Structures are given as C-alpha cells and as structure tokens.
Amino acid sequence: MCHVERNDELPEENGLVEIRICPKCGKVFYALINAECLICHHCNHLLYDQRAAERIPVSVDFIFHRKSAQVSATLEDYSATGVRIAYSGKALEIDAVIGLDIVDIEQLAIDMTAKTVWTKRLAIDTKTKNAAFESGLRLIKEC
Ligand SMILES: [Zn+2]
C-alpha cells in the first residue's frame, strides 16, 4: 500500500524546498528550507520558518476575547505557531478557543483565533489577590 512517488516537477535540489501552509490565508506555497523568514506568496503575510521560530520573549499587555468576555493578559512569548500568555481570573480549559488581538509586536500582528493547549496555575497575584494562570495557545486559522 505504501509507495514512494517520484515527483519530477519538483526542482532537482528538492531537499531545499518544502511545502508550507500560510497561517493567515491557509494557502500552500513552496518555501526554502533554512530561510530566516518567510513571506506567504499569496497574501504577503510574514511568517517565520518553523525551525528558526524559537519562541521570542516579549512582554506585551493585550486583551483576549473569550465568548463575550474580554480578559486582560500579558503576552510572554510567541512563535510562528503559538503564544504563551499570563492572565488572572479564570483558567482557560484545554481546547478553549479565544480571540487574540495583539498589535504591539514588531513585524508580527497577531489577530487570530487560538486554541488552548495547556494551562498552569501561577502564584496568586499579591496585589490583586486574584488567581493567576499561564496558558500555551496554538494559533489557528480564522474561520
Ligand atoms: Zn497567506
């Protein structure tokens, strides 16, 4: 059942290109492996190579939308595929879908839907006495 198909349409050095999916428009394009940064050929969205996309630490306050609620949060780091956020109040459960609207980051505006991958409890905020949480979110295509 399993067989390898030669695809002669790919360039000779086909180990140097790979298929990427734009997180913004969802279209597929070929990209050079090891490129430092990538731009979608369809919508010009800037995205980083997965392998080069180590998490970039930041500290940006923003608001996320959960159902009808708006929650203040701090973006702690981000990559091409996910973000890590800290917030207080109610923990996000796994698979909770939230809307992110982050525009303060150089070169990367995140206006996307994201899905909670993990949540952990942080120390209680000594100022507000609120429970504080940290969550890892995977960015998903807007639909
Ligand atoms: Zn695109």
Question: In short, what is this structure?
Answer:
With 143 residues, the protein is mainly β. The chain has no helices and 10 strands. Residues 22, 24-25, 27, 40, 42-43, 45 line the site of zinc ion (ZN).
Detailed description of the structure:
- With 143 residues, the protein is mostly beta strands.
- Helix content is 0%, strand content 49%.
- The protein contains no helices and ten strands.
- The strands form three sheets. The chain has a six-stranded antiparallel β-barrel.
- The radius of gyration is 18 Å and the shape is elongated.
- The two termini are 35 Å apart.
- The structure holds zinc ion.
- Zinc ion binds next to loops.
- The site of zinc ion (ZN) has 8 residues, from loops.
